[in-house]
Amino acid sequence: MAGEALTALHAFDGKRVGGLRALVKSDVPSAVLLTELPGPHEIAASWVLKARLEEGLLGEATGREVFEALPRLTEPDAILHLLQMVQHAPYASANAIRPYLSHKRALVRVWALDALAHVAPEEAAPLIEVALNDPSAAMRARARALSKNGS
After folding, report:
1. How far apart are CA 151 and CA 149, in angstroms?
2. How many CB atoms lie within 10 A of CB 1?
3. What is the pLDDT of residue 7?
């Protein structure tokens, strides 16, 4: 059970997610995936955990555990996956999110702002206003969506 999970995680090439999709609804415990955060397979593990959350297959306790790993992740794609999870499970702390507001990768900054809007809307409000004029089109688009939603 855990062996097949690790095989699929370790085989992930960063592009083809077929093997990871098979893990989403498998009986492989999320605890096995959590052991990969952080680590060399954190992108694959975070992808599966995010997909499980989106499918309603990740409990609150596990969701909270996932976000404990956020400050220790090193791969931008894994960080991005966890920041995107906040819209479905706002368990991350504002303290864990703030450092990513100035990340070198634009999409990490975009989703950090989105995550902050979900966990600390009052703090995010002035940042959303500033982001409406950001050089990044993705940031401007997310800021517009957040300002329309009142987040």
Report:
1. 5
2. 9
3. 86
> What is the pTM for the complete model shown?
0.93
Judging by beta carbons within 10 Å of its beta carbon (0-12, 13-18, 19+), is residue 79 exposed, middle or buried?
buried
Closest CA to 98 of 76, 115, 122: 115
> pLDDT category, 6, cuts 50, 70, 90?
confident
Q: Assess contact for 140 and 128: CB atoms under 8 A.
A: no
- Among 69, 63, 51, residue whose Cα is nearest residue 9: 51
- Residue 102 burial (CB count, 10 A): 9
Using alpha carbons, list the distances in angstroms from residue 150 to 87, 94, 123, 127, 141: 14, 18, 13, 13, 14
Sign of the Cα torsion 63, 45, 47, 103 reads positive
